Amino acid sequence: AGPATAALFTPALTALGITARVDVIGDVVTALAAGTPTTSGTVLVAGTGAIAASIRDGVVAGTADGLGWLLGDEGSGRWLGLQAVRAAVRDWDSPFAARVAARTGARTANEMVYWAQALPLSEIGALAPLVCEAARSADPHATAIVDQAVTHLVRTLDELGPAEPIVLAGGLLAGDTPVRDGVLATLRTRGLHPRTSLDPAAGAAWLAARPSSPLSPAALHEALLGDRRIRGGDPGA
After folding, report:
1. Contact assessment for residue 116 and residue 124, using Cβ atoms and an 8 Å cutoff
2. Most buried of 68, 186, 191, 203 (most Cβ within 10 A)?
C-alpha cells in the first residue's frame, strides 16, 4: 500500500511548509542502503524474522523465506527461541533447560508446554539472546541451535544466487552474535566478504537525499554512515 501510506505524510509535511514526494519502500531496501553505497546487491536479514532479498536499482527483484514464524523465518530470533523451548522440554534435566526455565518461569516440562501453547511470541523471540549467550559458553544444545540457524540462513541466501555486494542486516547478523560469526565464516570460505548494514534510518536518508545532494552517492554515503562504520568497527566494510 505504498501510495496510501505515502499520503499519510502529506498533512504533516504541509503543516511544516514542505512540498515533497514521499516514497514508501521495503525495509530490505533500506537495509541494503545502510550497508553499501550502491542500489543493487543482496541483503540477508535475521532479526525477529528472516529474509533474503535481491535488490536491483533500488527495487526488490526477488526474495527467499520471509514467510513468518509459522511457515519459515528459519534462523531468525523467533526461530531460535522456538528451538530453545523445544530443546528444553525434550531434555528437561539439562543445564540448557534450566536456563530456559528460569527465563520463562516454567517449573516443569509440562508447564513449559502450556506456556508455549499460549504462543507468547515476543517472549519466545526474547530467548534468542539466551541461546547466543549459551552458545558462546559452549552449551551443546545452544551450539547445535546456532549451527542450524547458520545453515538455514546461508541456504536462504543461496536460493537467490546472491550477487555482491552482500549485506548482512538485523540484530542477529549486524550485532556481535555467534550466528553472525557462523554466517561470516561460511561465506568467507567461498571468497565472499559481506558488508554490515548499519543504521537503516541513515540508509533511508541516503536514498532520499541522493537526487538532490551535490555529493556523489559514495561521498554522501560516507557522510551519513561512514562515522558509524568507524565507531562500530564494521568487519564487513
Report:
1. yes
2. 203
In this structure, what C-alpha cell is assigned to residue 45?
Answer: 536479514
What is the rounded CA–CA span in Å between residue 51 and residue 44? Answer: 6
Please spell the DSSP secondary structure of 83-134, one letter per residue.
HHHHHHHHSTTSHHHHHHHHHH---SHHHHHHHHHT--HHHHHTTHHHHHHH
100: nearest Cα among 119, 79, 83, 122 = 83
Cβ proximity of 173 and 183 under 8 Å: yes
Give pTM, 2 decimals.
0.88
**Residue linked to cell 537503516:** 200
Scan for cell 523465506, then name that residue.
65
Grid-cell match 527483484, residue found: 61
Spatial separation of the C-alpha atoms in residues 101 and 104, rounded to whole Å? 5
Terminal-residue alpha carbon distance, the chain: 34
pLDDT tens-digit readout, 67-111: 999 999 999 999 999 999 999 999 999 999 999 999 999 999 999
For the chain, give me the number of helices (H) and strands (E)?
Answer: 14, 5
In this predicted model, what pLDDT tens digit does every residue of 121-175 receive, in sequence order? 999 999 999 999 999 999 999 999 999 999 999 999 999 988 899 999 999 999 9
Alpha carbon distance 174, 183 (integer Å): 11
